[in-house]
Design goal:
about 500 residues; alpha+beta; Anthranilate synthase; eleven-stranded antiparallel beta sheet; 10 helices
Length: about 500
């Protein structure tokens, strides 16, 4: 068992975890998994960390890299330093295929943190691995064409290993500092009040920051116009009629140059677009912001859950119009058929790592409403095989069927043929694997990538034989109507 200290934290002089995180968001590896301050059933905890002790990366050209970090201010014990050095030396001296990086990440997590923590606190993440797999990681798992242009620097797979975290229960506002006793914890102040029987931590306070701005320096540009998009839908229709596929997800990409603070953009987006799987990740190469409503896979104990989204209608300010839109989705046989295709695909994907006969559909065609759209969501549960692990489950189901189509590999081939640029993080997954083998992951829709002075945003939809081309094109704009206008110019005050 790995010794993990869990104690209460008070954010004073900060208001909350998000407020405090704004003081470290520009540090290496800073990550915030944010529940969007929403009332969604999956929105319970916010999780923050930074300064990973070990990082593992895979790039689109097949390069693998790793590095470890020892910060003298942490006063890391010798045993922790030796363990990091040993893991690093072993990785550098090994020959690892890119497709094996997921299992290597799991192995490193076990080497550093074990598979259980020595405390009884029921929290979703204490220390362990937080990372992402870009959609194009799938190219190392399957043989796919390479027609689409790759112009990104961001890795296709990154695993950051964190020795500490701060968690906040958004309902109770209780917050916790968790840290590995073997690797220590950076710059938190222990405060004890013996007369009151209180013991808690306070975060350090960086220099106060002034007003942060974010602005686009030019307007958004799509990589395909309306006529081009509709022409590509015609091509998909030919594939559908020929029996190549039952469904194909086609996306357009928006791009614009920008200046300023990505954190200001994140704060603005989460205000107008709260989502249970929001995330902010600071990488060496880029910054990722996600306002995703969609869970990919989770594992708690040995229970697997996946919640594919397929079926969308816009929200309206007028309650009558909004309810009409919701009812139209509820009664749509087309959307139910699309949803069922993906349910069957995911049942097959998770069965590879599930106990025999344990895969069950526990919710079908349920409606979940978010700030911009109504979604049709289904729920599938199963039991994880004792011989498997959550990251293997992720790899064998990757990428998620709700954002590819069916059958998956043929749909991905069509996507590569028709979309002019690769997707990178879009339709990939952000995930964590904690010390207690607790695992959760999202599908990276409503997600932006910031790198080299450019910001990228995507929107797509599943195309089936009876899709109406104009309606499908308009749906892509419904999905980003709370994103693209929101970050044209942002001015935020921070402490």
């Amino acid at each position: 068992m790995h010794n993990v200290t869990v104690d209460r934290i008070k954010f004073s002089p900060f208001r909350c975890l998000t407020d405090w995180f704004s003081s470290i968001e520009n540090t290496a590896g800073a990550v915030l998994l944010h529940s969007g301050d929403s009332t969604h059933e999956n929105a319970k905890f916010h999780i923050a960390s930074g300064s990973p002790i070990f990082t593992l990366k895979l790039f689109a050209d097949g390069r693998l890299s790793c590095h470890y970090q020892i910060d003298d201010s942490w006063h890391m014990p010798d045993s922790g330093q030796k363990k990091l050095q040993a893991v690093y030396n072993e990785f550098n001296n090994a020959t690892i295929r890119p497709a094996d990086i997921v299992n290597k990440a799991h192995e490193i997590k076990i080497r550093l943190f074990g598979d259980t923590s020595k405390n009884s606190i029921d929290l979703p993440f204490q220390c362990g691995l937080i990372g992402f797999a870009a959609y194009d990681f799938g190219r190392f798992l399957e043989i796919l064409p390479g027609s689409a242009l790759d112009e990104y620097q961001t890795p296709v797979f990154t695993a950051n290993f964190y020795s500490w975290s701060v968690l906040e229960n958004q309902a109770t506002k209780k917050a916790y500092l968790c840290f590995s006793e073997e690797f220590a914890c950076p710059r938190f102040n222990l405060v004890t009040i013996p007369s009151a029987g209180q013991r808690f931590y306070q975060p350090w306070q960086n220099q106060p920051r002034q007003t942060a701005e974010f602005r686009l320096t030019e307007t958004w540009q799509s990589n395909m116009g309306e006529a081009d998009y509709l022409q590509k839908l015609d091509r998909i229709h030919e594939y559908l009629l020929a029996g190549d596929c039952y469904q194909v997800n086609l996306a357009q990409r928006f791009k614009a140059p920008y200046q300023g603070s990505e954190w200001a953009a994140f704060e603005a987006l989460t205000e107008v677009n709260p989502a249970p799987f929001s995330a902010f990740i600071r990488n060496d190469e880029s910054c990722i912001i996600s306002c995703s409503p969609e869970r990919f896979l989770s594992v708690k104990g040995d229970i697997i859950e996946t919640k594919p989204i397929k079926g969308t209608r816009p929200r309206f300010n007028d309650p009558i119009d909004d309810e009409d839109s919701r009812q139209a989705l509820i009664n749509s046989e087309k959307d139910q058929a699309e949803n069922l295709m993906i349910v069957d695909l995911l049942r097959n994907d998770i069965s590879k790592n599930a106990v025999a006969n344990s895969v069950k559909v526990t919710g079908l065609f349920e409606i979940e409403s978010f700030s911009a759209v109504h979604h049709m969501v289904s729920t599938i549960r199963a039991r994880l095989k004792p011989s498997s692990h959550p990251l293997q489950l992720l790899q064998d189901a990757f990428p998620g069927g709700s954002i590819t189509g069916a059958p998956k590999i043929r749909a991905m081939e069509v996507i590569d043929e028709l979309e002019p640029h690769r997707r990178n993080i879009y339709c990939g997954s952000i995930f964590y694997l904690g010390v207690n083998q607790d695992f959760d992951s999202s599908i990276c829709i409503r997600t932006l990538l910031f790198e080299s002075g450019q910001v990228y945003c995507w929107a797509g939809g599943g195309i089936v034989a009876d899709s109406e081309p104009q309606a499908e094109y308009e749906e892509t704009f419904h999905k980003v109507k709370k994103i693209l206008p929101t970050i044209r110019f942002v001015r935020k005050k921070v402490l």
